[in-house]
Amino acid sequence: MNHPRRPGTGASVASGHLQVVSTPIGNLADLSPRAREALAGADLIACEDTRHTGLLLSRLGIKTRLVSYHEHNERQRLPSLLSALAGGQTVALVSDAGTPLVSDPGFLLVREAVAQGAKVEAIPGPSAVLAALVVSALPPLPFTFAGFSPPRPGKRRTFFTRLAALGHTIVFYESPYRVAASLGDAAATFGERPAVVARELTKLHEEVRRGTLGELAAAFEGESVRGELVVVVGPAVDARDAGADELELPEGEREEDARRQRRSRRLAG
Ligand code: SAM
Q1: pLDDT tens-digit map of 23-42
Q2: Which of 127, 187, 207, 218 yields a CA-CA distance of 20 to 30 A from 263?
Q3: Does a cis peptide bond (omega within 30 degrees of 0) precede residue 105?
Q4: What residues flank ligand 1, with Cβ below 6 Å?
């Protein structure tokens, strides 16, 4: 059994635990030193695709054993991963890209690991949700992440209608094959809200397109879109006309949020 040093503390880990490790969404340089250390030090790595993660490990010169853990075998694999944890092993959980559990497998494992008393630790890093939100120039708070939009138009409209009622900035994942249709449906349900399509973030062909939902739907219509993308939809207020102070939380809530931030910094020492 391998007892790695816990990254960042220098302390030895006395019993096994589950590490939820974020990996790059395109740019290998985004892998944190702590993530590398966790992958190298784990007894085994549960990953969506052993070939995909195998390639990452070979680039890093890491030889940790890989075990496939994807949406189709999540339940079957669970007992052996839980017993590895119970036996004191350190299990690293990764997905193909970004942060596990975020539209990726892992929730079941984390939930059951916690239920059986295992220690669960995040090794945070890239995720397309936050990368898209922070380049969107749309109000970052409050925001709702909705995962992938449904592929069928009927369900997609219902999905957008529910999200529109929140009045938040909305972030969702979309397939490049459906982006024009999806933006068209979003325009029909949300109305003409400001939006952003963030494509191939952190990669060579990174592109961030801005406009209203209708403008973006028209721009993508008939285009053969490639790569991975995230859609961010701003709240109903027209972000281009409003003053900066209207773009975030309402005044009372902003003050309350700032108070909470100050308090939590004080408590954190
Ligand atoms: N767990 C990942 C994360 O934390 O971002 C997301 C996994 S989900 C299966 C894959 C989706 O994330 C893609 O279809 C796309 O919507 C989005 N995505 C992943 N990488 C991206 C990138 N480099 N640029 C834009 N969107 C990306």
Answers
A1: 999 999 999 999 999 999 99
A2: 127
A3: no
A4: 25-26, 95, 97-99, 102-104, 127-129, 173-174, 198-203, 228-230
